[in-house]
């Protein structure tokens, strides 16, 4: 198992324990169920943030491993450091390694080298900052997400990050609304099964009429 996957599982485990130990109004079954929901959301967020992001830059022959891909990108940037697409790819590679500071630096270079920042660039930078801030929605993160959604109202990374933050803050209805917004976007690359499961789990924590 890759280091990044291990760290994410540890994060989910710690969060689930905290939820379980601090829960007063929910019974143990509910608390355990919420832990499952966190696992589902975290897995989906991982798949969104860490999947390869398309760019207009052709890196060349597909490397055999992540480390080879990173080395290939770094070599090309040494030869020509003005390729914003490669900086963006490098940032996503660092996200996969949970090296959020290096990811942030790479995304900053990518944005500086672009005529105008794209929604993907802004939401990727927001993701790096979010995790650097211990999963807190700071004013800077919010600003980046708002800019990204102004450019692309259905940006997958931005909406997924927002939904995840709502979930961790026990704002279940807001999380559901954000997931529904993603489903309504009709994007073809969404993991709809994971989103629907997340919505159904979150609904179980809404007040009963």
From TrEMBL:
Pfam families: TPR_CcmH_CycH (PF23914). Residues 73-187 form the Cytochrome c-type biogenesis protein H TPR domain. It comes from the Bacteria. One of its GO terms (biological process) is cytochrome complex assembly. The chain crosses the membrane at residues 31-49. The keyword Transmembrane applies. The keyword Zinc does not apply. PROSITE patterns: TPR. SUPFAM superfamilies: TPR-like. Keywords: Cytochrome c-type biogenesis, Membrane, Repeat, TPR repeat, Transmembrane, Transmembrane helix. TPR repeats lie at residues 84-117. This is Nitrite reductase. It comes from Vibrio amylolyticus.
């Amino acid at each position: 198992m890759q280091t990044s996957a291990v760290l994410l599982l540890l994060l989910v485990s710690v969060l689930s324990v905290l939820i379980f130990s601090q829960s007063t109004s929910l019974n143990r079954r509910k608390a355990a169920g919420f832990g499952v929901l966190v696992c589902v959301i975290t897995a989906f967020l991982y798949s969104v943030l860490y999947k390869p992001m398309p760019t207009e830059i052709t890196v060349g022959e597909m490397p055999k491993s992540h480390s080879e891909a990173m080395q290939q990108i770094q070599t090309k940037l040494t030869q020509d450091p003005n390729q914003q697409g490669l900086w963006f790819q490098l940032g996503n590679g660092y996200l996969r390694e949970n090296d959020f500071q290096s990811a942030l630096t790479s995304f900053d270079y990518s944005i500086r080298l672009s005529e105008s920042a794209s929604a993907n660039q802004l939401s990727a930078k927001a993701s790096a900052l979010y995790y650097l801030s211990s999963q807190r929605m700071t004013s800077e993160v919010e600003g980046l997400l708002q800019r990204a959604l102004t450019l692309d109202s259905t940006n997958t990374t931005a909406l997924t990050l927002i939904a995840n933050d709502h979930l961790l803050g026990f704002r279940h209805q807001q999380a559901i609304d954000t997931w529904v917004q993603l489903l309504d976007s009709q994007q073809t690359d969404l993991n709809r099964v994971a989103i629907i499961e997340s919505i159904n789990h979150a609904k179980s924590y809404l007040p009963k009429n």
